[in-house]
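Service request form, structural biology core

Requester: graduate student, group of Dr. S.
Request type: structure prediction, single chain
Budget code: on file
Notes: please return the result as structure tokens.

Sequence provided:
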Amino acid sequence: MPFKSLYSVFLFIYYIIIYNNIAYAVEFNTDIFDLGESSKDDIDISRFSQKGYILPGNYSLKVLVNGEVISANADDIDFIEINNRKVKACLTDNIIKRIGFTTKALNKVTKWNHNVCNDLSKIDGIEIIPDIGDATLKLSIPQIWLEYIDSSWLPPSRWENGINGLMIDYNINSNLNKYSGRSSWTKSISYNGTIGANVSSWRLRLDYQGNAGDSDFGSTSFDISRSYLYTSIPELRSKLTVGEHSMSSDIFSPWQYTGIGLESDDRMLPPKLRGYAPQVKGVADTNARVIIKSKNRVVYDAIVPAGPFAIKDLDSSLRGRLDVEVIEEDGRKKEFSLETSTIPYLTRPGQIKYKMAVGRPRRDNHNVDGPLFIAGETSVGITNNWSLYGGAVLAKDDYSSFAIGVGRDLGVFGTLSADISQSIARIDDKESTKKGKSWRFNYSKSFDDADADIQFAGYKFSEEDYMTMDQFLDARKDSEYRDKEKELFTISLDKNFSNIDSSISLQLNHQTYWDKDSSDDYYTFSLYKYFDAFDLKDISLSFSATRSVYSDNNEYQDDYEDSYFLRVSVPLGYANYLNLGSSMSADRYTNTVGYSASLNHDLDHYSITAGVNSGDGRGTDAMASAYYSKTTPYNDITANVSYNSNEYTNLGLSIAGGVTVTAYGGAFHSGGTNGDTRLMVDTDGIGDVPIAYGQAVTNDWGIGVVTSINSYARNTTAVDFNKLPDDIETTDNSVIETVLTEGAIGYKKLTVVKGLKLFATITRGNGQKINFGENVVNKKGQELGISSDNGLVWLTGVNSGEILTVSKGSKAECNISIPDNINEEKILNLVCS
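Core staff response, request fulfilled:
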């Protein structure tokens, strides 16, 4: 019997499964609803009577292409009955654009419904499946009809230029210093940033910098260091710049000019096809200020904590020499220079990279200096393994330079490029011509078996009469110009030792000159090691050593400065560390103990340190320092204080941020660098809505700005529900996906309601309860709730004294007046009249 019972149950389940998959006309017993005095005829359930049938109308659906959502927000899609109760989805031009069809596929698209809707039936292999229950419209499209897409990149058809607006980004650093033996404090303030305006796809930018105070920074000054206008050209994967710009060449040494430039932009390519950005490494003995300049223009200025630092977020367009200045708390300055270079100039088969410019060379003071020139360079992928590149600079009869080179993929042996350049320069006398050549070799290799990378290795040799554009301009003013470059050698090597949780890094830069025996050199070596001891896990050990060798222009001899830094960090919990450190710089030895921690999703960081400093014949000093950084929704704040018993007391404060204003409103915000890309989020006048893990919060106008946006990449920004106030709720999608062009001000609106949450029973003036499934909306048309059985509604965003509307579909039925005094713990009885 037990077996028969089990068999009967199994058979019953089997029939349920089989019959459940057979489509029948369905009848519903509406008697299950407790309708009170309402009529069953008021309930429209006809849409459920046939399996798969979609009632004509407008539906809010997410569009999926091959299983992937094309937008974080749902689309309002009309379903139109065409014949014999057959319903067809109306795909608008906006949806078609975001799908990312190839040009060949778009040529097959036809129009219907008065040219409002697009018909895809002539594209072979496409299947359109609406799923109202899942609120999706699924499109299955053969990949041959689609542009290239990956998880972090979308094709140009999905890019947005944003909205018109104004912006000001700023970075302010201030210091107060009191040195031993002095009775007064010295103060200094330096600042830099960008002023910008966006109109359509065009961006106007003014870079500024200045300083004030009575320290070594000199007299008060302000300077617009660069003014320019640019726009992206997605069809060419290029960027057009007008105004003051830099010829950031991959072949020639860069120079500044005023004119017009057009260059291909790797950021418009999928991530796997993009180039690389330079990286600056060094060691700070104290909480130091690091300033990086390119052609005397500040491109980076920030305070870093004591220890090794690596500046990784520099602009990928930077080329040539970077001047680095590390200003310690005691006023000491360490200076060194790095040559930034690209990896070997290889281009994929059939792909062309190029840069073109026309204008006149520009010096530091905005004045053009030198003849009109035209310059261009290109790289063409010939085969899978070979690339050919070259370029030319023509400046009337005074200066010209030509270059040609090849790049070769050596497979397991890495990649190699070699090129030769020839310059011809006429300085004072048309009959006096200087001709010279320059040879360059670059190499890059990843040793997978050894878990090591030679990120870049390069060698360059220039003849004595070879001249770059900048050297030519210097020689026009001074025929005996200095620093005639001879040899340049650079290398960057990383090696991992996975089996012992260790890694090493080596960076070397060596430059010699024709007109002096000395050289400029910079070396840095870093070692990182993780280990366990006793009950402590993931203890980290880091060691860095640097040597800067620099020449004295007067004595023509080398001088150098060595430094090292050793730190052991012991985890004491999540993002909390005990730090032991030892360092040497300028023959002074420092030993410290400290504590550091991160809070609030890594938006806050702080550290405290105490120790002793000795050596260099100056006795032993007690020292202490503290460092704190905080990212608020309105700015980034860094504060530091340090004390040395016999030398100095230093107070520092840095504030960085910006303000962005559009026709929809404006907001102060954190981040913002050089007028870069940002997203404005509008919550329609509701403030205190946290966005992107609290990096931005909407203000009293309901405006918040997120600056952690990557150009030409898929960016997802979401409401932070962990920090969302209890009386605020989103009524639609709380996730925003954007792909913005460079410098754009993106704009997205979120539907948010603010107010009480409560249960209410809604009765009509005639005593009948409102019908099942009717909507309750506020004056903005935002849905606050849907009625269930017997007129019961769960309402969100209810405010005292407001008027709500009960509607059936798009038709308003009656209005509700919310009383001034509400007890949200009880069911509220409301009358709809």
